[in-house]
Amino acid sequence: MHRAYFDFHGLRLSYLEAGEKHNRKLFIAHANGYAAGCYDYLIAALSADFHVCALDFAGHGGSEGTLAFDSWDFFRDQITAFFAYKNWKHCIAIGHSLGGGSLLRAAIENSDQFEKIIAFDPVMLSFPAVIYVKLFGNPMARVALARRADFKNKEQALKIFSRHPANRNWENDSVRAYVEYCIRETKEGDAELCCDPAIESRIFSQAGWRHLLQLGRIRCEVQLILPGHSNVCPPRIAARVTAKHPRSAIERVAGAGHLLPFENRGLTLSLVKKHL
Questions:
Q1: 2-129+210-275: what fold?
Q2: Fewest 10 Å CB contacts: which of 30, 84, 181, 250?
Q3: Cα separation, 189 vs 153, whole angstroms
Q4: pLDDT digits (tens, 9 = 90+) for 31-57
Q5: Rounded distance between C-alpha atoms, residue 29 and residue 57, angstroms
Q6: From the centroid of its chain, how far is CA 228?
Q7: What's the pTM value of the predicted model, to 2 decimals?
C-alpha cells in the first residue's frame, strides 16, 4: 500500500493505493472526521484480487482542506474527479457514512460508473431531518466543533482515544489506525487532528434535499448494510435507493451501530466479501 496525490480545484488530495493495476477496480470512501487508512484492513484484504484506491476527502487524512463548500456535492465531486484522474470507467465502491452518501450522490449523476455500491449506513437524511438541521442545527456539528484537536504526541493521543467512552466498542486495531491516519505530527513536535474540527462541523451542518427527489436515478446495484435502526438512512429512503436494480438489497445487522467498520472489522470484511 502506498500514498499518492492528485489535484482537485487547487487542493492536493491524498489517496491510498494497493493491488495490481490490471485487476478490477475498487474504491473506498470514508466517514466524516476519519480517513482512508481507517479502513486499512479492507485495503489489505481486498488488494489481493482488486486494484484498490481509498480517497482522503478534502480536510481529512493526508489531503488539504478548505471551508469553502456549502453542500455534500463537494465530496461527490471529489469522487468523480478521482475517477476521471485515474481514467476509471467502471468500479465497485465501498462507502461508510459520508462516504456512502457521497457515492450514492455520485450514482444519481452517473450510475454507469459503478458496477455496484456497498454502503455502510450512508447518510441520506429524510426531508424532516433536513428541515430540522436547517432550522436548529445538527447536534453532531456542535460535538465536532468542541472536539479536542491538539495532543502532546501520538502516544498521548493513543492513550486518550483508547480510553474515550465514544470508542468503548471499537477494536484496538481500529483505535490504532485512527491515531495513525487521523492524527499527524506537527513541525513543533506535538500532534494534532488531521481533520480540523471546523471542517468536520461544517460537514455535519450541511443539509440538502435535492437528492431526495432524484433517488430514482440510482440504477446501479446497491447493497445497503444498515443497523437495526438507522438514524441517517430511514426505511423509505433505503427502499427508494435500492428500488431500480434487481440485485439491490438492504441488509440489517442486529446489534450493529453506525460505526460498525471500526467496532467489528471481521464482520465488516465478511459482509463486503459476501456482496462483492
A1: Rossmann fold (3.40.50)
A2: 84
A3: 7
A4: 999 999 999 999 999 999 999 999 999
A5: 8
A6: 20
A7: 0.94
